[in-house]
Write the structure tokens for this entry.
Amino acid sequence: MEKTKIRVALAGNPNVGKSTLFNQLTGLNQHTGNWPGKTVEKKVGYVEKDSTLIEITDLPGTYSLTAHSIEEVVAREFIIKEKPDIIVVVLDASALERNLYLLLQIMELSPNVIVALNMLDVLKEKKYKLDTEKLQQKLGIPVISTIASKGIGIDNLLEKIIDVYKNKNFNPMKIEYPEIEDTLKEIEALLPEKIDEYPKRWAAIKLLEGDPLIVELCKKYEGWEEIKNIVEEKEENPVKVASARYSLIKNILKDVLEKPTKQVITWTDRLDNILTHRIWGLPIAILIIFSIFYFTYFLNEAISIPWNNFLGLIGLGLNNLFSFLPEWLKNLLIGGIWQGVANVLSFTPLIVIFFFFLALLEDTGYLARLAFVTDRIMHILGLHGKAFISLVMSFGCNVPGVMATRTLENEKDRLLLIMVNSFIPCVPRILVASFFLSIFFPKYAPILLLVLYLISFLSIMISGRILQRKVLKTSFSPLLMELPLYKISNIKIVSLYVWDKLKSFLVRAGTVMVILSGITWILSHIPSGNIENSILANIGKTLMPLFSPLGFNWQLTTGLISGFVAKEASLSTLGSIYGASGNALGNLLLKDLSPITAFSFVVFQLLYIPCAATIATIYKETNSLKWTLITIFYSLTYAYLFTLILHTGITLLVR
Amino acid sequence: MIKSLTDLERGEKGKIISIKGGRGKIFRLAELGVNPGEEILVVQKSMGPVIIRVKDTNIALGRGLAESIYVEVEDHGEDQN
């Protein structure tokens, strides 16, 4: 017998436990990708019940279905174009008023809607009384109570999905808005029968809301001029739609939801009294971030030594395994390609730990508070609070930093943040810097290191302004976000999240590193096997005139080229060129370079280009070759000009 | 008395009277329930953003955004804390 397949879409506001419900429904039987052509994550999972296969697509969490953000567009296009059999809308029972806003819009698009009423425990804590039976009657669609975090109600929900799929016989509430009904009728009368795949009434509402995508679509119709007059007659039309929805919601909730006269102080309120406190909020946030850094450092130290030893052993093993190959090929495989893979793998513990903490911050609800308390400081950099966590993570490694920009809704904000992210010095860059500083300025190294961090903040400030005005032509949108309730983190969700991120990091960075390490190895070994007259060195020598205004010799220039593959590789390349490492390399450099040149080099390598793994991540996150190239071009130009001014300035000052 | 949202003290309640700004911004706020006529409570204030409670949800608003929201406060409500 052929199995029935039911296609279900899971919708809901952010922070209502939708992801938890999705994970409870599908377990590990899910895969993550991107929506076609979009940078929004798409999750699809499967579950089997009574010989029925249920395919669940997790729509992005949204408050509405307007075209405010890509998430909202993705969600509504899926509902309209892919026509899922059933839409499950997850509602936060403790904030029903706002949650019903999305439900109404979804009910306007499809009759086969099921409500999963979540967070009933919070409702209880707030001492609200909700008549679920009555709510179901009024809405005319099934309402299933769930506690997603504990897996309660999952079976009921699955049964209801199958039931509704088979007997589509219920009678959903007719959604009418007395306040705007006349205007809607007028617009509907002017629209053709078919507007692509959009229902006519829905399109009329969207036009009244001023939805840019639907407006664009309807411009071609005959009645457009008249529609335009109706829509634009009153400035407040969009707000009127929102008000009309909310007054309908008030009607629905009348004698369904009863609130106590005095609001109960919840756990979230108590915690927020301290964690978002106007004086204590920021010090606590700094303390938390420092602890995270401390633990990351501590754990990474503990894990990375045995881990790197293990990687070394594998390298040796591979060396023996491939001993039958000709020497050059073996060296290419081990010294080039495997070294690149090992490089990526050696970063893995750091990435895992970082993502673990990010997931924890997000899942507990603290991340939003962090954005709140840091908002003011971030304004100095021309950004807002939501950018904070991304920049913090970049101090460890730019890759998770760039990946963390997903917490921003606005696409242009995200682009800007991605571009300035690469000015945050990651650990490898600081390692290279420390090496130079300790050789050339042993007494002042700590102060100069601090200067480097200041240069990096300054660069973010300058670049933020330049990029906003000249390139993106927009300013960072103001902070506007919900503060979700605090909750105890679910280890299953956190692990799934970390695993997801790790997988995508390994695949992406791994591929890039294999290819680039291979290429760099070849370039530095042919024609003679001696790096000094290799192609790589020749490229360095050719480019040198460009870099001599900064004081760099060809050795430094060559180092910078391999530093593009991985920042710390610039040191090892310099090592092979000078035929020395550690202190010996230091002494040779001391003879060859002036302190001013050394400092300029340190500054340049701090700013000049994101490493290959980061660039691959930027490409994935922006989904655009253009923006990836702009990022590269911008950071190169900026670093060059900045270092040039610095180098010339100091040289003049000293003389 | 009508005040800008940023002039309200922590714990003070008020009713939104008007919001200054472009169509898109006002509609976005309206969808989140920050709409003229709505009762709000200032949950937290800082030198920068403000947290308000509206429709059972706490929402953080950047300083500029909060400044553009005008609220009516009952005059005698100020001495209670």
Summary: Chain A touches chain B through 41 residues (CB under 8 Å).
